[in-house]
Write a structure and sequence with these properties.
Blueprint (H helix, E strand, L loop, with lengths): L7 E6 L5 E6 L7 E5 L10 H7 L4 E5 L18 H15 L5 E6 L1 H10 L8 E7 L4 H8 L4 H9 L1 H6 L4 H8 L1 H9 L10 H20 L10 E6 L7 H5 L8 E6 L5 H4 L1 H19 L1
Parallel strand pairs: 3-4, 3-5, 5-6, 6-7, 7-8
Antiparallel strand pairs: 1-2, 2-4
Helix pairs in contact: 1-12, 2-3, 4-9
Length: 288
């Protein structure tokens, strides 16, 4: 389901021909804020946040490949992080070809955005990054290698990742509704009306294409982009240490541990908007 009628909708074409649906909340001339959703959401996740930030930013959201109105490639390899980065490039080349953008991301949106901000080729295209409930997979690979209590605790929280790698059963569970009930026991959410079954089923390819290779063979990925890592303290999927103990990789890092659960953009959009304004305001002061 596309975001509300307050947006304008367009399509950009990624390097491999995948069509990406883009939603523009207006305010041309303001700093551009790109919002990247996670799994199993689509760009509609950002509606309440965008409404609060549209006076300060030119807010743009897009459906990640496999979700919403974007194309759904059939091969697992089409969901590799490098393909997701090509989608991001196609979006920013269209909406902000001459100026760098701010990035706000959640869950798998944050995972892929860490890939973007740690790519030297994109350093001059990104002004700031707000990451909510999503680590870099490479950073996670090094974190797990510590083999301490925090790493073990995160592995226990990540049980569902291994489940998503099973053949046919996860797809069947989403289609039958079993998985919805199971995941709602971990954190209740009322978002089904804005998601399609394709958002659930196609998005599992993100895990299958990226998680195991990155955890087994992580690479050192650094950034000096100013990062705000936001960790909801009751997140049942991503522990605070994994999200916040990344100073080794992010030279300009701020951390906010906040009350709430994983679906913070939906459940507390006002706080998300406040954190974005505070972080980008601080970045602007640094640049003066």
């Amino acid at each position: 389901m596309p975001p509300s009628k307050s947006t304008t909708t367009s399509t950009v074409v990624s390097a491999d021909g995948t069509r990406i649906a883009v939603y523009d909340y207006g305010n041309s001339g303001a700093p551009v804020l790109i919002c990247v959703h996670g799994y199993p959401d689509n760009a509609a996740l950002w509606e309440p946040v965008a409404e609060r930030l549209a006076g300060d930013f030119h807010v743009v959201a897009y459906d990640v490949r496999g979700a919403g109105e974007s194309d759904c490639p059939q091969s697992t390899s089409a969901y590799h992080l490098d393909r997701l980065e090509e989608d991001f490039r196609a979006v920013i080349d269209t909406v902000s070809p001459d100026q760098p953008v701010h990035v706000l991301a959640h869950d798998w949106g944050s995972i892929q955005s860490w890939h973007f901000v740690t790519d030297p080729a994109l350093r001059d295209r990104i002004t700031s990054f707000v990451s909510i409930s999503g680590p870099s997979l490479d950073h996670a690979g090094y974190f797990i290698r510590q083999r301490n209590r925090a790493a073990l605790r995160q592995l226990l929280h990540s049980w569902y990742i291994f489940y998503f790698h099973l053949p046919w059963l996860p797809e069947l569970a989403w289609r039958k509704g079993w998985a919805h009930r199971a995941f709602n026991r971990l954190e209740t959410q009322d978002a089904e009306e804005k998601r399609s079954i394709g958002d659930y089923v196609n998005g599992m390819e993100l895990y299958r294409a990226n998680v195991v290779p990155r955890l087994i063979r992580p690479t050192e990925r650094h950034t000096d982009v100013p990062v705000l890592a936001v960790s909801p303290e009751d997140d049942p999927f991503v522990t605070t240490p994994l999200q916040t103990q990344v100073g080794r990789w992010a030279a300009n890092l701020r951390v906010e541990i906040v009350r709430g659960g994983h679906w913070m953009p939906r459940n507390d959009p006002g706080l998300v908007a406040q954190l974005v304004l505070e972080h980008t305001g601080q970045v602007a002061r640094w640049e003066v």
